[in-house]
Amino acid sequence: MKKIAEDVISVSVGDQFGACLTEDRKIYTWGVNEFGQLGTGDFQNFGTPSPLDKMASEGRELNKVACGATFVLCLSQAKEFLEVPPKSLADHHEAKAQQIHKGILSVQRKIERQRK
Question: Does position 1 have pLDDT exceeding 60, yes or no?
Answer without folding.
Answer: no
